[in-house]
Every structure is written in C-alpha cells, then in structure tokens.
Design brief:
With about 300 residues, the chain is mainly beta. Helices cover about 5% and strands about 40% of the residues. The protein contains 1 helix and 22 strands. The strands form 5 sheets. Strands 2, 3, 4, 7, 8, 9 and 10 form a 7-stranded mixed sheet that branches. A 6-stranded antiparallel sheet has the order 1-19-16-21-12-11, covered by helices on one side. Strands 18-17-20-13-22 form a 5-stranded antiparallel sheet, with no helix packed on it.
C-alpha cells in the first residue's frame, strides 16, 4: 500500500495550511452552498451564521467548556430535571449550562440563535443552507444510545448519532438533510471488523445530483474511557481508489491521530471508498447519510 495522501483532502485541526486546503476542496466538491473551517474558541459568544445558513460545530477537544442554555432550547441527549420531554429533542425548562465534551455537536442559525460558550475548545465546523431539519442547539454524545452498524457493526461499537438522518419522502432521498453525523469506535480487535465500503452521489427529487463526502474527524479515546486497541497499533484509514472496478485491489493508507481530518469524496468524476481501522472518530456526511453504502469486494 502507498502512503500518499495528496489525492484526497487530508488535514489536522492544528495545521492552518491543511485547513485552508480542506476549505478549497469542499468548495470544489460541494460548491458555494457548503463551507468548512476549523478553529478554537475561548470564552466567547458566537454569532449565528449568515442569513439562511446553519452552522454545525463538531467539538474535537475542550477544556472547562460549557454552553449557556435558555428555556426552550432543544438538546439531543438532554436529561434530568432541567428538561421536559418534547419531540424530537428534550427542551430546557430553566436557564443554565451544559458541559461541552469532545464529540458534542453545537448548532446555530437564525432560529436557534447564537452559541454562548465558556472555557475553551477546538472544533471542525460545516456551514450550509438551512432547511426544515429539526436540529437541536446542542447534541450531547455522552448521553446518546449505541446503535452498532456501518463502519462498526460489532457489539458496543459506541456508534452514536449526534445529527441523525431525518426521514425523507418517497422520491426524495435527500429531504431536509444537509449534514448528518455519527461517532463510532472502529476497531480491528472486534468481530465483525470495520467494513470496507463506499457511498455514491445522490439525486434529489428535483433531479439535482448532489456530490457526497464523508469526513472523519478523529477524537481522543480517553475522553470516553474507550479501551485501547490490542495489537492493532496506531489508527489509520484505508482509502480505495477505484472500488467499483478494482474493489479492494488499489488502496493507500492514511495515518491518524486525534485531530486528524480525512475526507472521502464521491462525485460523478471521482469515487473513493474507505475503511477506518482503530479509529475513534466523528463521521460527518454531506448531504447526509441518505444513500445506502456499498461493500467493497476483494
């Protein structure tokens, strides 16, 4: 296997040059409707994104970080006496704050308002057009349930959906989805092992073809007490260049550390597949997990 990474977007949250390259790559793949960035915050109120847009902020690391909440704010994974059960997300019934951990998702737009954050943190953020997707203001990874499958089909995969796909109608596979995300611990010391697969483009109800990306943002296992991987060594992503014609026979490996960002693109001109091995990561899909994955054959 080659170790070249130049043909797909790869970066790290602390490497400004690689983030600029990622920003360019997203514009080339998704057009002006989608932009990404990575950065830090320190005790600040973050204004909502531009008119008609929604920002999905995925936390990579945090220190003494809290998000201020007001009555009526919806929190996926909000539990306890401070919340009432309102579909689809519990609603805050009293002002207060929730601690923000790595793996949490914070969402802002004109409807949800700004994010008032204390402490400090590092994040990866996707900004795209707003739809009627029922986004919460905050999604708490630590309180979500585990649903093994996809890249991690084994028991206790820690596969948790902070931004799950919203139902779509027949003939419109995209619907209100523009960004979906789930976090999972993809390990080679469990059975069955992580799957080798790819996604295709998706055609909306209006006939428009949406390019697809699935982006892995690697998290530190220690935040959630995830067990170390046995003899598997450091985590990595195996990227398949031509999964339709060559199956798994043409691939290269991308090393991973916490904060690594790896984008697997699927366009009408370029189709890649992937398998993440020994990686605990957020997987961010644009325009969402709205098409089935296809297994890559030997």
């Amino acid at each position: 296997m080659s170790t070249s990474t130049s043909e797909i977007p790869v970066g790290h949250v602390t490497d400004a040059a690689s983030i600029r390259a990622l920003e360019t790559a997203y514009r080339e793949i998704h057009g002006p409707e989608v932009s990404v960035t990575a950065g830090t915050w320190s005790n600040e109120a973050i204004q909502p994104p531009p008119s008609g847009k929604t920002a999905y902020r995925f936390v990579v690391s945090s220190e003494k970080a809290h998000l201020s909440l007001e009555p009526g704010d919806r929190v996926r994974g909000g539990i306890g006496a401070a919340y009432e059960d309102v579909d689809p997300h519990p609603a805050r019934i009293s002002p207060g704050a929730e601690e923000v951990w790595a793996g949490d998702a914070l969402i802002s737009n004109e409807k949800l308002g700004s994010l008032d954050l204390s402490g400090s943190g590092v994040y990866f953020e996707v900004i795209t057009v707003s739809t009627d997707y029922p986004a919460p203001k905050l999604s708490l990874l630590r309180n979500l349930s585990d649903h093994p499958g996809g890249c991690a089909p084994y028991y206790e995969a820690f596969r948790r959906e902070t931004i799950p796909p919203a139902p779509t109608t027949s003939g419109d596979p995209v619907g209100s989805n523009r960004v979906n995300e789930h976090t999972l611990d993809m390990r080679i010391d469990r059975q069955p092992p992580p799957t080798r697969h790819h996604h295709g483009t998706v055609t909306g109800a209006d006939g428009r073809v949406y390019n697809h990306t699935e982006t892995a943002v690697v998290l530190p296992r220690s935040v959630y007490g995830r067990p170390h991987v046995g003899n598997g060594g450091a985590g990595h992503a195996v990227i398949y260049r031509d999964p339709l014609n060559k199956g798994s026979g043409d691939s290269f490996t991308v090393p991973l550390t916490p904060g690594s960002i790896v984008v697997t693109p699927s366009t009408t001109e370029r189709l890649y597949g992937h398998c993440f091995e020994n990686a605990f990561a957020m997987l961010v899909a644009i325009p969402g997990f709205v098409v089935p994955y296809e297994l890559i054959q030997e």
